[in-house]
Fold this sequence. Notes:
Blueprint: H1 2-21, E1 24-26, E2 31-39, E3 43-52, E4 57-64, E5 76-79, E6 86-94, H2 100-106, E7 111-115, E8 121-128, E9 133-136, E10 139-142, E11 147-149, E12 162-169, E13 175-183, E14 186-196, E15 202-213, E16 219-228, E17 249-250, E18 260-265, E19 268-279, E20 283-296, E21 298-304, H3 309-312, E22 324-330, E23 344-351, E24 357-365, E25 373-380, E26 384-397, E27 400-411, E28 417-424, E29 428-434, E30 438-442, E31 445-452, E32 456-467
Parallel strand pairs: 1-4, 2-16, 14-23, 17-20, 21-28
Antiparallel strand pairs: 2-3, 3-13, 4-12, 5-13, 6-12, 7-8, 7-11, 8-9, 9-10, 14-15, 15-20, 16-19, 18-19, 21-22, 22-25, 23-24, 26-27, 27-32, 28-31, 29-32, 30-31
Amino acid sequence: MKRTMAIVLTLATSLASGAEAAQLAVGRDAQKDVMVTIYNGNLGLVKDVRETRLPTGLHETEFTDVAAQIDPTTVHLKSLTDPAGLRILEQNYEYDLLSSQKLMEKYVGRMVRLYNTDGTYLEAKLLSTAGPVFEINGQIHLGHNGRLVLPSLPENLVSKPTLVWLLRNALAGPQRVEASYLTGGITWKADYVLVLNPADTKADVTGWVTIDNRSGATYGNAALKLVAGDVNRAVDGRRSQRAMEIATKAASMAEAARDFKSEGFFEYHLYTLDGRTTIKDNQTKQLTLMAAGDVPVVKQLIYYGAQDYYRTSYGVPMSNQKIGVYFDIKNSKDNRLGVPLPKGKVRVYKADASGSQQFVGEDWIDHTPKDERVKIKMGDAFDLVGERTQKEWRKIASNLYEVEWEISLRNHKKEDQTVTVIEPVPGDWQVLTSTHAWEKPEAHTLKFQVPVPKEGASKLTYRVRLRF
């Protein structure tokens, strides 16, 4: 038994001394490739390939220049040269980064030197970093004119975020290793610019990808992929993101002419950049997602009735309501689109009489597959006015009523217009009379198409019987 314990202790001692003797740092200078996949929800997947010569046996390796917001629990290391010969026995993430504040905190309660301008110095004990507070010759000093000098660099401070691995390696020659991990602090979004023609019938559409990198790492000459879709993530209430105040820098537009290729991936869509790009830390970068010209658009003028009128305001006339302006676009190949559109903000412009482009509205669109329709609300019409009046309300029998509505539409433009009127109708209902043809798009909805002449007016009157 004693002999066995002695052998185990000797082996442990030799392994420990071997690990200390075989420490190795693998930095960004050894990087051969990097691939970044960015998701909508402040999440990135990094694959970092570096080439190095690892010592055989047990040794400690420092993998530097990783993202400051890395999730260490997601790290995966593999050797691309000898997958079976490399194993991780232990992993540590060192993120106690070197700074003047951290240095002072490490020296609280220890002796330091305060140098005067004439080169002389005083020995002092640092009591607190708030102030700071020193003890000099038995007296307490709140701050001091001297320049604080520390005798040495304390342990457990690193200049950059570092993964430290205890590895067992079998291959003696050089090899390529790939470290993959998830990191926060990096996200992307889509923005669209839509420029209308004078007739409001066609538009030029440009889609932009905006990448915001606050992860604490630079990804040079990276292969870039973007995932569009609502990826579910498990919630861990014990963890919190470190708050960081990082200034946003504008990115160069030199690479903006390249396109993204789209493909279906699981229940999402994957966009792959044609070529490579560099994503710097603390940088906002824009790249072209898509571009299409002369895309057909349908302009719609829609007048919505009050959804809750019958339930909350019986017998009380409605005030005037706005006529909304919308654009409807079919995302199809026949319309020069037909590509999956990630959710984002659409900004619409149109040239005025002098030819200058003016901003006319914006709206959000959700993730839109090909051959689906995109509806963009521009705002409310200025020269079109709607007025909704309840002309009659009668109780015919128990739970049986008749109501008559009159909707006046006035057009102050110099062109004829067509207004779509959407009216809510509750209960079990039946249209008794109507001045215009009607449709029933839903169980409790009436729809009318009402032509309104230029500088003129139209009246829509309908009567319905309701049973509650």
